[in-house]
Design a protein that fits this description.
Layout (H helix, E strand, L loop, with lengths): L1 E12 L5 E12 L3 E5 L6 H8 L7 E6 L9 H11 E5 L10 H11 L4 H15 L14 H13 L5 E5 L7 H18 L2 E5 L3 H4 L4 E6 L2 E7 L4 H15 L12
Parallel strand pairs: 3-7, 3-8, 5-6, 6-7
Antiparallel strand pairs: 1-2, 1-4, 8-9
Helix pairs in contact: 3-4, 3-5, 4-5, 5-6
The structure holds adenosine-5'-triphosphate (ATP).
Pfam families: ABC_tran
Organism: Paenibacillus aquistagni
InterPro entries: AAA+_ATPase (IPR003593), ABC_transporter-like_ATP-bd (IPR003439), MacB-like_ATP-bd (IPR017911), P-loop_NTPase (IPR027417)
Length: 256
Amino acid sequence: MEMVRVKDLCKTYNEKVPYTALSNVDMTLNKGEFVGIMGPSGSGKTTLLNIVSTIDHPTSGEVRIEGDNPHAMSLEELALYRRRELGFVFQSFNLLSTLTVKENIMLPLTLDGSSIKEMKERVQEVAQKLGITDILDKRTYEISGGQAQRTAVARALIHKPKLVLADEPTGNLDSKAARDVMELLTKLNKEMQTTTMLVTHDAMAASFCDRVIFIKDGQLHNEIVCGDNREVFYQRIINVLSLLGGFRHDFSTVRV
Ligand SMILES: Nc1ncnc2c1ncn2[C@@H]1O[C@H](COP(=O)(O)OP(=O)(O)OP(=O)(O)O)[C@@H](O)[C@H]1O
């Protein structure tokens, strides 16, 4: 079943000199699928994620999420839609430092007016899945980067969103923490059947996906699907990246 449908999507930034960041992008994400988006620096990955996640608007074309067109909603409808149906994970964690880990995780439910009982139950459930029950009362400055990103993942998933959007979630983590976060994200994706779109430059992170879509110069380049062997998938990702060229970062040195 189709969860996300991107149709003929174009984005031009109207600066002094207009810049076309995306041209005629078509893609589909199926329900429960974990899809990576890769491409050289400046190829349009974040622009694509921002438009699918409703943070930015397309110049033309359409995004449908389970049939809904979020870009056609009013600001109030859109705010509610984002809060209820989408989950976000960012490179910089975006946790509120004045709140505890537990309060950060609860935030989407607090904003939605859920009962205290329900919030407590859901926090316990999601914290257990992410192995962070023992840090729930800590402040965000008392925890490690890996724990911070697991907290951010818990916050993104607590309201059981339809779609999780992750922009370089391993970008600020060491290789061990990065691998842990990817293992948890994929485990929860399978358990909860939450469709996930991941932008990354990291081949190790991408090798956890079911499918990786490559973009270059704002257009779809190709895609590869993970078979039975993740190590082979990782090598195939590296091969496409070396063909594409133009990477800001060195390829990940982490072995799968
Ligand atoms: N708000 C903006 N105004 C003008 N140009 C922009 C804006 N945001 C992005 N761009 C340009 O659009 C192009 C695509 O940017 P985008 O951030 O989507 O690329 P990316 O593939 O995510 O890059 P990176 O891997 O470096 O994060 C780049 O050339 C960028 O300079």
